[in-house]
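Severity: low
Component: inverse-folding endpoint
Summary: output formatting inconsistent between runs
Steps to reproduce: submit the following structure tokens with default settings.
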């Protein structure tokens, strides 16, 4: 099944994010977003963890520079996170080991988070007098509630996988020795669903976060009308009438 896999591949640096890596992710997301054969996208880390956060040394005065966008308002992190929310396909973060700082914010931007039981999740930057930078203040309260988000950001503590599951920060937790297998099964399940329909649902959820009820209802109806023109909508109706499992093609 068409799964686009993005792997953070700096294992010797605990997959710390630097500007070249972030812009690679941006390029991949832009290409995957246009690829009709890709039904779901995963983001994971190579080696012992998902990501330890920003590579502060490479982003300092002596580090790699980047060209800002035309309006100068967005750093590469923001461009990456915005794309994650805009790509009309499910994006699933596969978390193991450290998921910290900017890596934590990357995971928060994804639609679904699956975690290995050995995960350590959080944002310790406040302990080094660094504010959150790329979405934690936006995403985290919407996922776990304002009070919990405030405590997690202020304290800089690391959550284990079970606490993250309990508060809804991650969707599922799997044993470490079964994580790859269980996560792959879940991703395959998502990839078999009607991709365009899920993309419209994602668009609706994004819209509803900053709009009132009636505009959200209008927006839902507009996208619903688009969805009923898809081939998968027709397959869903046929399979229901014939009492069989649907076979979606993502179009």
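Observed output (run 2 of 3):
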């Amino acid at each position: 099944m068409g799964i686009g896999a993005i792997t953070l591949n700096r294992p010797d640096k605990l997959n710390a994010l630097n500007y070249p890596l972030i812009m690679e992710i941006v390029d991949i997301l832009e290409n995957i977003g246009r690829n009709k054969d890709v039904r779901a996208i995963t983001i994971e880390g190579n080696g012992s963890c998902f990501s330890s956060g920003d590579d502060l040394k490479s982003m300092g005065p002596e580090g790699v520079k980047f060209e800002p966008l035309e309006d100068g308002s967005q750093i590469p992190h923001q461009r990456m996170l915005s794309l994650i929310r805009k790509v009309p396909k499910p994006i699933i973060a596969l978390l193991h080991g450290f998921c910290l700082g900017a890596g934590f914010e990357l995971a928060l931007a994804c639609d679904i988070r699956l975690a290995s039981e050995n995960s350590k999740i959080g944002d310790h930057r406040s302990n080094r007098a660094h504010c959150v930078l790329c979405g934690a203040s936006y995403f985290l309260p919407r996922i776990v509630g304002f009070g919990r988000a405030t405590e997690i950001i202020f304290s800089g503590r690391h959550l284990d996988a079970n606490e993250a599951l309990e508060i809804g920060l991650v969707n599922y937790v799997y044993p470490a020795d079964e994580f790859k297998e269980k996560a792959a099964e879940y991703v395959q399940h998502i990839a078999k669903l009607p991709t365009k329909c899920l993309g419209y649902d994602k668009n609706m959820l994004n819209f509803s976060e900053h709009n009132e009820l009636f505009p959200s209802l209008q927006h839902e109806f507009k996208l619903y009308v688009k969805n009923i023109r898809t081939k998968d909508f027709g397959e869903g109706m046929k399979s229901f009438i014939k009492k069989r499992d649907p076979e979606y093609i993502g179009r």
